[in-house]
Amino acid sequence: MSYRLSLKKKQLLITIHVISIISWFGGVFCMFMLGLYMLNSDNGEQLYYTLENMHLVDVILIRYTALVAFLSGLALSLWTNWGLFNYYWIVTKLILTIVLILFGVAYLSPWLSQLLREADQGRSLALINAAFLDKSYSLLGGAIANIVALAFMTAISYFKPFGKIKPKLNKSKS
Question: Among candidates 32, 146, 156, which has minimal Cα distance to 99?
C-alpha cells in the first residue's frame, strides 16, 4: 500500500505548494515589470541595475520557488488520493511545470545573464544594439508565457477540468 499523508501533513504541504506558486508567479510578474522598465532606461546605470535586480529576482524568487512548487505538487499527487496520472488536469500541470522550468533553465536565465553582461560592458549603448533589444523582447515574451501558463495552471487547479483518465481495458481474445 502506498504512503498517504495525514490531514495535518496534507494541509502543511498544500500551504507550502500554494505559497511557492504565489512566489513563483510574483517573481515572474516582477521580471515582466522590470523588463518593461529596463527597455525605458534613461541611462546605462539604470539599465545595468535594472538587469541586476532582474537577475536577483530570477535567482531568489523564481528558481527555488519553481522547484518547491514542482516537488510539493509531485508529493501531493503521489501521497493523496489524486494520484499523479489519474486526472488530465494533474498531468497537464505536471507537463506545463516541467516545460516552464526547463524553458527557464535553458533559455530565460542564459538570456538574462547575457543581457546583464552586455549592459555591464556597453551600458547605454546596449539599448541601441539590435541583438540586445531582440533578446530583451524574447525575455519579455518568456515572462508573458510564464504568466499565462501559471494563470492557466491555477485555473485548472480550481476547476479541475478534463475529467479522469480512464485505464485502457485489455481485451483478451478467447
Answer: 146
The CA R_g of the chain, rounded to the nearest whole Å, is: 20
List pLDDT tens digits, range 30-85. Answer: 999 999 999 999 999 999 999 999 999 999 999 999 999 999 999 999 999 999 99
Give the E-state strand segments of 63-148 in sequence order.
none
At residue 2, what is the residue type? S
What are the φ and ψ backbone dihedral angles of 126, each rounded to 5 degrees?
A: -60, -30
Which residue, 86, 76, 73, 51, is CA-closest to 166? 86
Q: Cell match 505538487: residue?
A: 73
Q: For residues 111 and 135, is the Cβ–Cβ distance under 8 A?
A: yes
- The pTM assigned to this predicted structure is 0.90
> CA 39 to CA 43: how far, in whole Å?
11
Planar angle of CA 157, 163, 167, nearest 5 degrees: 125
> Distance (Å, rounded) from C-alpha 11 to C-alpha 9?
5
